[in-house]
Design a protein that fits this description.
The protein is α+β, with helices and mostly antiparallel strands. It has seven helices and five strands. The protein has a five-stranded mixed β-sheet, with helices on both faces. The longest helix has 16 residues. The N terminus is likely disordered. Bound molecules: FE2/S2 (inorganic) cluster (2 copies).
Length: 203
């Protein structure tokens, strides 16, 4: 798995903090004193927080439950359903998006942790004139999908992989794309597509 969560607070850390806080609540203690001494613990669970970020070149302002993942913010609150929820546990890569140019798993990233970031999803990859990104075109040229469910994540991950310079050969591509699973096993064609996109960058 090569993808990473962004920021210092990912969903697991956040939920662990909230769980720790719940476990520490004294049964009959002075709750106001407890709240004062634990003001850093996220007590606003369930309350909304304003979150601003740029999505595909457009500034978005959302009021979200602080537990909302970036994936849910994009899909459920902004209606961009290209990014897929395969596992919601950081295991399949279907939710991969770019945050400040780096690929991340949006199901493991809190939307609030992406405040101020520049986010790109599959919907924002084509040019302003509507021309497909070279990676998108390469996936079509090489039939690098069957059902297509994993494809948006594969393409976003391939864009990140190329930007990282981790596509020198087949083995590197397989290694650095290994966080993106394809249940249709289109892997050989995906490798060929990434190579075409890489070579089109070089030419
Ligand atoms: Fe995010 Fe599977 S949905 S890794
Ligand atoms: Fe079906 Fe990848 S094309 S899961």
């Amino acid at each position: 798995m090569t993808n990473e969560t962004s920021g210092n607070v990912d969903r697991r850390k956040f939920l662990n903090m909230a769980g720790t806080a719940a476990a520490m609540v004294p049964v009959a203690a002075d709750s106001s004193a407890w709240a004062q001494t634990n003001s850093m613990i996220p007590t606003a669970v369930g309350a909304s927080v304003q979150t601003n970020f740029t999505l595909n070149g457009r500034l978005e302002r959302l009021n979200l439950d602080p537990r909302t993942t970036l994936l849910d913010a994009v899909r459920e609150h902004l209606g961009l359903t290209g990014s897929k929820k395969g596992c919601d546990h950081g295991q399949c890569g279907a939710c991969t998006v770019l945050v400040n140019g780096k690929r991340i798993l949006s199901c493991l990233t809190l939307a609030a942790a992406s405040a101020g970031a520049d986010i790109t999803t599959i919907e924002g990859l084509k040019s302003a004139e509507g021309k497909l990104h070279p990676v998108q075109q390469a996936f079509i040229d090489h039939d690098a999908f069957q059902c297509g469910y994993c494809t948006p994540g594969q393409i976003m991950s391939a864009v990140g992989c190329l930007a990282e310079g981790n596509a020198d050969d087949d083995a590197s591509i397989r290694e650095f794309m290994s966080g993106n699973l394809c249940r249709c096993a289109a892997y050989p064609n995906i490798v060929e597509a990434v190579k075409q996109a890489r070579d089109s960058q070089d030419s």
